[in-house]
Amino acid sequence: MTGYGKSTAEIPNKKITVEIRSLNSKQFDLSARIPMAYKDREIALRNDLSRRLERGKIDLTITVELLTKDVSSKIDHHVVAQYYEEIKDIADELQIEEPKEWFAVLFRLPDVMKQDVEEISEEEWQAIEKAVEDAVNEVIAFRQQEGEMLGNVLREKIENIRSLLGMIDPYEAERIEKVKLRLYEGLKSLEGIEYDKNRFEQELIYYIEKLDISEEKERLANHLDYFIETLDKEQSQGRKLGFIAQEIGREINTMGSKSNHSEMQRLVVQMKDELEQIKEQVLNVL
Question: Domain locations in the chain?
Answer without folding.
Answer: 73-115, 144-282
